[in-house]
Amino acid sequence: MADFQATVENYQNITKKIRHLSEAISLMHWDLQTNAPKGAIQGRSEAIGGLSGEVLKLSVSEEMEKTLNELLKEEYFNQLSSAMKASVLEDKKEFDRYKKVPQDKFEAYNILTSKAQAVWQEAKGKNDFNTFQPYLEEIITYKRDLIELWGYEGHPYNTLLEEYEPGITVEKLDNIFNYLKENIIKLLQKINAYLNVLDDSMFQKPYNIEKQKEISLLILDKMGYDFNKGRMDESAHPFTIQINLNDVRVTTNFDEHSFNNAFFASIHEGGHGLYEQNVSEELKNTSVCTGTSMGIHESQSRFWENMVGRSLEFWLYFEDEIKKAFPENLENVSTEQIYRAINKIQPSLIRIFADEITYSLHIIVRYELEKELISGKIEVKDLPNLWNDKMEEYLGIRPEQDSEGVLQDVHWSAGLLGYFPSYSLGNIYAAQFVNKMKKDLPNYHDLIRQGEFKSILNWLKENIHCHGKTLKPTEIIEKVTGEAINPKYFIEYLEEKYSSVYNLPME
Amino acid sequence: MADFQATVENYQNITKKIRHLSEAISLMHWDLQTNAPKGAIQGRSEAIGGLSGEVLKLSVSEEMEKTLNELLKEEYFNQLSSAMKASVLEDKKEFDRYKKVPQDKFEAYNILTSKAQAVWQEAKGKNDFNTFQPYLEEIITYKRDLIELWGYEGHPYNTLLEEYEPGITVEKLDNIFNYLKENIIKLLQKINAYLNVLDDSMFQKPYNIEKQKEISLLILDKMGYDFNKGRMDESAHPFTIQINLNDVRVTTNFDEHSFNNAFFASIHEGGHGLYEQNVSEELKNTSVCTGTSMGIHESQSRFWENMVGRSLEFWLYFEDEIKKAFPENLENVSTEQIYRAINKIQPSLIRIFADEITYSLHIIVRYELEKELISGKIEVKDLPNLWNDKMEEYLGIRPEQDSEGVLQDVHWSAGLLGYFPSYSLGNIYAAQFVNKMKKDLPNYHDLIRQGEFKSILNWLKENIHCHGKTLKPTEIIEKVTGEAINPKYFIEYLEEKYSSVYNLPME
User: Fold this and answer.
1) CA distance A162 to A152
2) Which of A1, A71, A77, B80 has the fewest Cβ atoms within 10 Å of its own Cβ atom?
3) Interface pTM (ipTM) of the complex?
4) Which residue among A20, A226, A246 sits closest to B50, beta carbon to beta carbon?
5) How far is Cα A381 from Cα A133, in angstroms, rounded to an integer?
6) Known catalytic residues of B?
7) Which class for A94: exposed (0-12), middle (13-18), buried (19 or more C-beta within 10 A)?
8) What is the DSSP letter of B504?
9) Which tens digit of pLDDT belongs to each residue from A23-35?
């Protein structure tokens, strides 16, 4: 058995190499999405592929295995700092997963998903599911093989869930999503019954892009996003990326004819950015120095986007700034009118444009299909019809073409299965956090009304951000709220908010 | 002996890894200079250091050595494409240099120069040579050790020159620089005697930065810089970087109160950019897919900056655009006046602001000191006085403080010795190229006057750019102009141009 210090140093040397490579890869991705000239793409993609291969090689190397096994021995493990313990466990988990995948299989899968994304793009453009079908079939086959290699308990889909939301299972999700579905559909029917159509025409006028940018930067700054440790750029699809702990960048996308989209995209990504910027410095240079899961990440972005950014108090606080920025667009429009417009409920076909209430139904449609694709209960070729049936059943609208239905999202072509539920879990987590936050900060609404976001951010930092990936999502939920994941808070939040937005009768 | 194909593949695998890492490192450097938030710097610098270490390790690895030695055997070497031959020779040269440097020595040197740059910055700020002196002494000692390790013929300084300008020696440079010094001082005296002071007050007014940017982009585009394979950003110190062959970026630096600087910085970097963008596609993915030397690079940037950008024809072509962009600044100013203003000769203390005539004298001052520092004829402590004496002797002005004298440039603190002569060689090469270009394109001046930069760029591509690093600078000069480097063309160019700018009497 090697000397403890030497083993630790050995471990740190391997993980440092991985970290340096990962930092480079992240920057290359960011650059491709924001700055890179067209000609750069091919070479850059090859370089990203090459360096990602090196990361994988190091992650499953014999040296990594030996070092991890040494450090996991009780007498060594006990001597490690808690950050190092979490880091070793995280790396061991990754090692166990990826060591099991034969390298040729992994490479073939990477080529498959690269091709599949291009094919999907074309298929969506031509509204032609058939050309995409064989690629999706191959991807499903690969996922099933992976599940066999990795093993599973309960439902095979659990193995895919575990990758994005450790601790979440089909058994839990079925309960959560059935509760959500039932209550959301009920709320939707109520809104439909009392529907006084909301006027959101003020957002259809052109909004000066430079002014939009100024407002986005102002709001990010007010939220507490640290521009000494990040920056905001533009990209076709908004995203957040941690390049290193002190360099967490967000992007947004401005459209003169859609003030709404850029505005909430900036706040949404700001929420992700705050999470990554505020992981504890103690976790720096470990494998757990990042958000713990997709779902907790979405809870942060959706908290800021929907619960803060789409609240009346928020708009009352920013109304002067926003009306000053766009005097012509917003003259004669009251802040109350804006508040109602940005919370307009309208079942629609495209997930990314869905409102806060119907959004979860989009996720549930896909979850139910994914689960049964993996278990083999349904087949890829049946997806378009099944998709449309479920949309009709849950949202009351039926896509007329697959480009607005089953083909709308890139995720499946990129092999992202088991990923969608996290979007919806984010809303549930966020509402559950806010319920607790309101107890700790009884003047929660006033804080927003007065732009005192600092207290809110501090609460998030202390309760969620600082832990990075040292706690699983289920552990964070329980630690913060004292109970397991519970979707009732999200339903209560929706009922309360939309009763006010739509003046629904109290029950 | 391993199979030929396997050996080639092996070589390509190692060099591909080096290339991918180098691409990442280049992007990280670019990002640090243009975009990165302050917080990013420490982590990014560590990552750059780590990945650069990996590149060095691969470059001097046993595998690299074995593979290169195999490929250099006659029966294998003869089978290689000419691009691969050049690549193998280049890698072998690097291998031989760096293999000889003990790793601990190399790492200590990297730490030394990092510290020295910070110390220099402070010393310059405080105008205090003494604090910098011990660092420079250590750097000189390292350079002397390196020269011993690498060996030398003739003057020991030749070994340092070889790194930046292969084929150039002290013996050649002494001749060239003495000729230059003598003739430039003569020309300067003539200008002083006939000095009618040029009015450049039109450049002291504020120039709108957005307009400056538009003009810079317009001119780069007209020059033929391909924005599908590059972009222009802003940075404190303008630079050009090849990230990959189809992603060559330039930066510039705008100052409202100095239109001149940004304008010529953009053109200068555009010249570097054109060189890197137009290396032959056949050299892609080899070690010779870049400009061949600092000096040839400077010949390209200075050709565009001075010979094209500071010509009357160039300004006549762009006058409408520029006067339209800055109507208030340039009303009542003739293009002829602008032409004379941008070519104003004025001996001054700071190299980077020097005019086209006195520039070479700054280089010669430093060259003469560097050479004797390395040979041991002079000591670091004597530099401030020696510097000031030479400035007074050659330029007729004496710095009153070291911050405007020997401390003005960062280069020595970064270990860049043997590098400065290339700046001056660039001017000499450029004039020699233009002399030939005028024979091939007899309507050379008309082409500029009409903005027909394409023919000029094509000439440069075919004669210089396409070769990348397959030819040494001395080989390119001889191939293109039919003779060895000859400074008389530069002197003739200066005499002719400044006789016209200053209306000097013809001899």
Assistant:
1) 10
2) A1
3) 0.93
4) A20
5) 7
6) 269
7) middle
8) P
9) 999 999 999 999 9
Angle between helix axes B421-440 and B294-302 (nearest 10 degrees) is: 60
The pTM of this model reads 0.94
DSSP SS3 for A100:
coil
Tokens of A333: 């429009």
Tokens of B81: 């494409």
CA–CA separation, A381 vs A139, rounded Å?
13
Q: How far is B13 from chain A (nearest CA, A)?
A: 10
Q: Rounded to the nearest 10 degrees, how much is the dihedral formed by the CA atoms of A8, A12, A13, A15?
A: 140
Cβ–Cβ of B38/A245 closer than 8 Å? no
Task: Of A425, A448, A184, give the one whose Cα is nearest residue A307.
Answer: A448
Interface of A with B (CB under 8 A): 16-17, 19-21, 23-25, 27-28, 31, 35-40, 42-44, 46-47, 50-51, 54, 226-231, 243-247
In the numeric block, which tokens belong to residue A112? 């498959």
How far apart, in whole angstroms, are the C-alpha atoms of residue A260 and residue A322?
12
User: For chain A, how many residues are written?
Assistant: 507
Are the beta carbons of A36 and B247 separated by less than 8 Å? Answer: yes
CB within 8 Å: A244 and B21: no
Tokens 């650059």 sit on residue: A31
- Least Cα distance to A326 among A220, A205, A450, A223 occurs for A205
Which residue spans within A175-292 are E strands per DSSP?
A: 232-234, 240-244, 247-252
Is the separation of the CB atoms in A175 and A367 below 8 Å? no
Q: pLDDT for B79-93, tens place per residue?
A: 999 999 999 999 999
- Residue A465 in contact with residue A327, Cβ under 8 Å? no
Helical ranges in A396-469 per DSSP H: 421-440, 444-449, 453-463
Domain ranges in chain A are: 1-99, 204-344+444-484
The pLDDT of A188-215, averaged and rounded, is 87
Pairing of strands B247-252, B232-234: parallel
